[in-house]
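Hi F.,

I've been meaning to write this up properly since the lab meeting, where we talked about keeping a consistent format for the predictions we share between groups. The idea is simple: the sequence comes first, exactly as it goes in, then the structure tokens exactly as they come out, then a line or two of notes. No screenshots and no reformatting. I'm using this chain as the first example so we have something concrete to point to.
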Amino acid sequence: MSSKIIVKKPGSPTLEEIETELVYRGDLKEYVGGNPVEMVQISNDGLSLLVDENGIFKRLPHNFFLSFDNTDIPIQTIIGNAVFARFKPLDYSNGDPWDYELCSLTDKDIEVIKNILREDLQETLKKQFINRYGSVEEPYNYWQIIISKLNGFEN
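Output, unedited:
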């Protein structure tokens, strides 16, 4: 059975809807472009975002901004390819599951994704990001600022 995912590439406004026969989260690394794959939960019901966990070290290009309900890190820059996918809840009834199992994005999921990527929201998040971290041009340096703030040091 195929599952619908969405791939958003840096520099492209296009959301690429893909029907895939892949089954597990780790299988999606071919769309993310790297391994290991980091999963960011977008909602409590299985909607997630996958990115290259080492993208910051590979200096992958900025893709979009994402806000979080976290006072220490309220905005992050998503870099490299981003894959939006839905996953089934983990089922431990037969022992430890191998990995998160993919299921298809819903129409509601696609609306949530489009809302996240709205141009006006992205512009607002960009301004907030610059106010907080100083630059969009060097997104790789913002982790140093975050770590300093978390350790009680201000720039």
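Notes:
The CA atoms of residues 45 and 89 lie 8 Å apart.
The chain has a mean pLDDT of 84.

If this format works for you, I'll send the rest the same way.

G.
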